[in-house]
């Protein structure tokens, strides 16, 4: 069980973040969690200078639909990053395992099959209390971490483009 708040926000100071375009896909299922995650991500993106008009919100019914919506946004090639926000809480049947695995695989596919960083901000918790703790409670807010990750990956991708592929060992 996690006992440490990993969401302490440290400003990134990324230059030109106002030009970043970000799509946020969020599940309306378990909205008492997902809306908190979404709002925290929005707050950090705007603090870092992303213009509100460059952030587009896309609600979907449940966590499983995050994969389709995220892939469609990636295929549009309109967004510098996509953040997928959801919350899956374990129940009494294997449904939790199927949905969690499918969503993780789908978001992974967005990352390896497209050129758009897709950030996994899907809580997979055993109970509501764990979800609340990770969406603004004692353990921070994973929406903060998702926003920071999105900005970092956009910055990484732009640095790759600036170097025209010369990144890594042996190149300067």
TrEMBL record:
What keywords tag this UniProt record?
Answer: Riboflavin biosynthesis, Transferase
Q: Which SUPFAM superfamilies match?
A: Lumazine synthase (SSF52121)
Q: What is its EC number?
A: 2.5.1.78
- Keyword Transferase in annotation: yes
Name the catalysed reactions.
Answer: (2S)-2-hydroxy-3-oxobutyl phosphate + 5-amino-6-(D-ribitylamino)uracil = 6,7-dimethyl-8-(1-D-ribityl)lumazine + phosphate + 2 H2O + H(+)
Any single Pfam family the record assigns to this protein: DMRL_synthase
Annotated Gene Ontology cellular component terms: cytosol; riboflavin synthase complex
Q: Where is the active site?
A: 95 (proton donor)
Pathway involvement?
Cofactor biosynthesis; riboflavin biosynthesis; riboflavin from 2-hydroxy-3-oxobutyl phosphate and 5-amino-6-(D-ribitylamino)uracil: step 1/2
- Biological process terms in GO annotation: riboflavin biosynthetic process
What would be an example GO MF term here?
6,7-dimethyl-8-ribityllumazine synthase activity
* Annotated positions binding (2S)-2-hydroxy-3-oxobutyl phosphate: 92-93, 134
Which InterPro entries has this protein been placed in?
LS, LS/RS, LS/RS_sf
Q: Does the keyword Transferase apply?
A: yes
Family the entry assigns: Belongs to the DMRL synthase family.
- Role according to the record: Catalyzes the formation of 6,7-dimethyl-8-ribityllumazine by condensation of 5-amino-6-(D-ribitylamino)uracil with 3,4-dihydroxy-2-butanone 4-phosphate. This is the penultimate step in the biosynthesis of riboflavin.
Q: Which PANTHER family match?
A: 6,7-DIMETHYL-8-RIBITYLLUMAZINE SYNTHASE, 6,7-DIMETHYL-8-RIBITYLLUMAZINE SYNTHASE DMRL SYNTHASE LUMAZINE SYNTHASE
Q: What is this protein called?
A: 6,7-dimethyl-8-ribityllumazine synthase
Gene for this protein? ribH
